[in-house]
Write a structure and sequence with these properties.
The complex is a heterodimer of chains A (about 525) and B (about 325).
Chain A: E1 19-30, E2 33-44, E3 48-52, H1 59-66, E4 74-80, E5 86-88, H2 95-100, E6 103-107, H3 118-122, H4 136-151, H5 166-179, E7 184-188, H6 196-211, E8 215-219, H7 223-229, E9 232-237, E10 240-246, H8 252-260, E11 283-290, E12 299-304, E13 308-312, H9 319-328, E14 334-339, E15 342-345, H10 349-354, E16 357-360, H11 364-368, H12 375-380, H13 384-387, E17 388-389, E18 392-393, H14 395-409, H15 425-437, E19 443-447, H16 455-470, E20 474-478, H17 482-488, E21 491-496, E22 499-505, H18 511-518
Parallel strand pairs in A: 3-8, 3-9, 6-7, 7-8, 13-20, 13-21, 16-19, 19-20
Antiparallel strand pairs in A: 1-2, 1-4, 4-5, 9-10, 11-12, 11-14, 14-15, 17-18, 21-22
Chain B: H1 2-7, H2 11-27, H3 37-59, H4 69-84, H5 92-115, H6 121-140, H7 150-156, E1 158-159, E2 162-163, H8 164-180, H9 184-193, H10 195-200, H11 205-231, H12 243-252, H13 264-283, H14 288-317
Antiparallel strand pairs in B: 1-2
The chains are: A alpha/beta (about 525), B mainly alpha (about 325).
Chain lengths: ~525, ~325
């Protein structure tokens, strides 16, 4: 049995049948990062089973294992055979193999081939490499039937998929899966790209197929959607399945409590937490009517000197675009550097740097690290001017400047001339931060700077940010970790669906309040 | 007219082809004489087929490209001339299967290097290019081997009323047409268009890509035969002749090097344009010293214009 604290097998969902898919003790790690620790759950045929969890809880990893993209390090996946008996699933080696086993998924990312027709996209992957199993007439007929169900009308099957609006492109990806009559349908945030009417028709379609015995695994950031269609909810926290609730028990408060694990974290307040700093009145950065996505409400925001502002939300809800807009200037709306009465719109990253901004990107390896270069070269690369004498770089000056930061940031390394790749992830990140600090920015933008680094290095970075803020530097930091927001931030902007869904001040911050806001709920306190 | 240009990536090359045909006939009325067609087509065939052979790898996406096509054709040409014909193995029942199997095998090796071993396509096929060029030098030895036989001479001329060049080009097009009746081309287009979407939908992207390179190699085998027929000799120096111009023909024919769109018929039009440009230049008595520079310039304009048109299409549909 999966670890289920609900202990209520006596109230099965109305039409729920036998178990269609069971996962037991699934685990998956990527290097030192544990994505899934121990996940167990049973998905019955004839039920809609929601999976909930905050960022990094392991939802995506679970889905990628079930769809054959990843192979688990440990644990088993069992699938009901036609006789209804569970058997260890045939090796899910690729999405193709998972689809043949009856497990099919639709993702948040709209996976259609823009250049090909709607019809081809709908039947994509249904053929083997050479043989097509159905005549064109039959393909057209069955595609029309599914689109009628999903879109409530006809669609031009010969139009290139790229010419359709987003909602209909996602409908192509959903039609593709429904046509193949899955035993287990996985919707991984697949409804966020759909318009409301299409989403409702999809839910009706799922209800019909539920009556026919299909199991649905449903992942959504909309608590309302989960309440509307899910029969049971399994909650993941830090890669572990921590409970499965029946619909009746799955109130928002209970779910948030399970997701945050508030009961074992002393109310979600941790040791380092600062007492609120008096916010300096002087604004240094202004955002005016910044629209992050078509159709999303515009964002306006003022950043003050000496405050640390967090950007939070489930991944992919606009926080990344927002931070980049602060650095590169917005495409719609304005981002203004405010100094006294002067307002200067930021035009580009280079311009932002000249105006006293610094940006530490998320992807260390891809966006900020020069792997073939040494520690000191990596440090000095944006401030080479300070090290040059008569146009030549002076390594001695650079070493001296770096030494000042190795002390204050606690960078642990061999010699400054060692390759940057010889350092641990945390120390690499500190060198990148030092690179920008050397320009003495007044505004520091950090994109998930503590991702994948060890606890000691995290603490050093927290201390550093405290110190910077005390010196009047304004900090905006995107973080995928709820704890980090609770510990560190003066204010947190919670992003939902491409706009700011809520702002939490220091005294409102708790794990429960944040996670509630992620899922569009008022703080349950 | 504009709609036709926008919706078909090869439309620009087709229009240019018609313009160049007229220009050729005006500059050189003999060009239109039917008795000249077999020779014209025989010379055009190896070049067109080199361009065909370059197309599937590019269409498979993921930065796919095969720059070993030219040397592969040359090696096949040389093995026929230097090894098969002198040893009495010149019958079509031996030569044709040899060309097809050798070509496909080299293509399959390229495809495996790229997909399974994950070499960069440019690097993998450049290595193959060097290996094949080296092989060609080995086979050539000190004397350029020469030779031909009755049916290869017909291939360079005509079989009865049918020009031989038309046959070798036609065979490639027929293979493609045959494939279009299977699921393979749909899978190839989907893989090139968006490999992540194709993979997640269950398309065996790895096999589709290996087969794309294999198909290119198979075409190169046919191209090697067409080359042998028209040259009647095997010179290692020819190995580099077709490599880059074939890629230019593919680009001119509207196939994107990202793999997101393309067609074999476009490549035929692109190759036709390039052939006719050289032809009209020599007919117009442009000095030899200038032809390369003018040819390159015209090509640059044509490729940029064609790509611009295709991108405008993309932007509209996106």
């Amino acid at each position: 049995m999966p670890s289920s604290p609900s202990h209520s097998p006596a109230s099965p969902a109305a039409e729920a049948g036998p178990v269609a898919l069971r996962v037991t003790g699934l685990a998956k790690a990527f290097g030192p990062t544990v994505a899934l620790r121990s996940c167990s759950a049973e998905f019955r045929s004839g039920e809609v089973h929601a999976i909930m969890g905050e960022n990094g809880s392991g939802k995506s990893t679970l889905v990628k294992i079930l769809t054959g993209v990843y192979r688990p390090d440990a644990g088993t996946v069992e699938l009901a055979s036609t006789g209804g008996r569970l058997a260890t699933a045939p090796a899910l080696r690729s999405p193709g193999a998972a689809i043949r086993a009856g497990i099919m998924a639709v993702f948040q990312e709209v996976l259609v081939v823009d250049s090909r027709s709607v019809l081809e996209n709908t039947w994509l992957g249904a053929d083997t490499v050479f043989r097509s199993n159905l005549s064109k007439a039959e393909r057209q007929e069955r595609a029309r039937a599914v689109f009628a169900e999903l879109l409530g009308g006809a669609i031009d099957l010969d139009a290139p998929a790229g010419s359709l609006p987003l909602s209909q492109r996602q409908a192509c990806a959903i039609a593709r899966v429904l046509l193949r009559e899955p035993k287990v349908l996985i919707l991984d945030e697949a409804t966020s790209a759909l318009d409301v009417a299409t989403r409702d028709r999809l839910f009706d379609g799922i209800r019909r197929r539920r009556a026919g015995g299909m199991a649905t695994v449903f992942i959504s950031h909309r608590m309302d959607d989960i309440g509307e269609i899910a029969d049971r909810v399994t909650v993941l926290r830090s890669g572990e399945s921590v409970g499965t609730l029946e619909r009746a028990e799955a109130g928002p408060d209970r779910l948030v409590q399970l997701m945050t694990g508030a009961d074992h974290l002393a109310g979600g307040k941790s040791a380092h937490q600062r007492t609120g700093r008096p916010r300096a009145a002087e604004p240094v950065l202004g955002v005016r009517d910044l629209r992050l996505r078509a159709g999303a409400a515009p964002v306006s925001f003022d950043l003050c000197a000496g405050e640390v502002v967090g950007l939070a939300g489930l991944e992919g809800h606009g926080q990344d675009e927002f931070l980049r807009a602060l650095w590169e200037g917005g495409r719609s709306g304005r981002v203004l550097r405010l100094t006294g009465a002067a307002q200067t719109p930021i035009r580009s990253a280079r311009h932002a740097a000249a105006l006293g901004l610094g940006y530490v990107p998320r992807d260390r390896r891809g966006e900020s690290l020069f792997a073939p270069l040494s520690v000191q070269e990596n440090f000095g690369v944006v401030t080479a001017g300070a090290d040059s004498r008569f146009g030549l770089l002076s390594p001695a000056t650079r070493r001296a400047r770096l030494a000042a930061y190795t002390g204050s940031l606690g960078i642990r390394m061999g010699k400054p001339s060692d390759l940057i790749t010889t350092l641990s992830g945390g120390n690499q990140q500190k060198v990148i931060i030092a690179r920008w600090l050397a320009r003495e920015p007044r505004i520091l933008l950090l994109n998930d700077p503590t991702r994948g680094i060890d606890l000691g290095a995290k603490r050093d970075i927290y201390t550093l940010l405290d110190k910077l803020a005390a010196d009047g530097v304004a900090v905006v930091m995107l973080s995928t970790e709820v704890d980090e927001h609770v510990e560190l931030m003066d204010r947190v902007l919670v992003f939902r669906e491409g706009t700011v869904g809520g702002v939490l001040d220091r005294d409102q911050l708790s794990r429960a309040a944040l996670v509630s806001a992620f899922f569009g709920q008022e703080a349950a306190r | 007219m504009m709609r036709f240009l926008r919706t078909r990536p090869y439309a620009f090359a087709l229009v240019l082809l018609v313009v160049l045909l007229i220009a050729n006939i005006v500059a050189q009325p003999a060009f239109a004489t039917p008795s000249n067609w077999p020779e014209t087509l025989a010379i055009f065939a190896p070049f067109a087929i080199a361009a065909f052979a370059s197309t599937p790898a590019i269409m498979s996406g993921g930065g796919g490209i095969d720059i070993s096509i030219g040397p592969l054709m040359t090696v096949i040409d040389m093995v026929i001339v230097a090894d098969l014909l002198p040893h009495g193995l010149g019958s079509p029942g031996i030569v044709v299967p040899f060309c097809l199997i050798a070509g496909a095998a080299v293509g399959a090796v390229n495809g495996t290097l790229v997909t399974v071993l994950r070499f960069q396509p440019v690097v993998a096929t450049l290595c193959m290019n060097f290996i094949l060029t080296g092989l060609a030098t080995q086979i050539e030895g000190s004397l350029t081997p020469q030779g031909s036989t009755w049916w290869t001479d017909d291939l360079a001329g005509s079989f009865g009323p049918v020009p031989g060049g038309l046959i070798s080009i036609g065979v490639v097009l027929l293979i493609w047409l045959g494939l279009s009746r299977t699921a393979f081309l749909r899978n190839l287009y989907a893989t090139g268009g968006d490999d992540a979407a194709a993979f997640s939908a269950g398309v065996d992207v790895t096999r589709v890509r290996i087969l794309a390179y294999t198909l290119g190699g198979l075409f190169a085998g046919i191209g090697g035969l067409a080359l042998m027929a028209v040259l009647r000799e095997g010179e290692a120096g020819d190995a580099t002749m077709y490599t880059l111009v074939a890629l230019a023909a593919v680009a001119l024919g509207g196939t994107a090097f990202t793999g997101k769109r393309g067609s074999l018929i476009g490549t035929l039009f692109g190759a036709g344009c390039m052939y006719l440009i050289t032809n009209v230049l020599s007919a117009a008595r442009v000095p030899d010293t200038w032809t390369d520079a003018i040819y390159g310039g015209l090509l640059l304009v044509a490729v940029i214009f064609g790509a611009g048109l295709a991108n405008a299409t993309q932007a509209r549909t996106a």
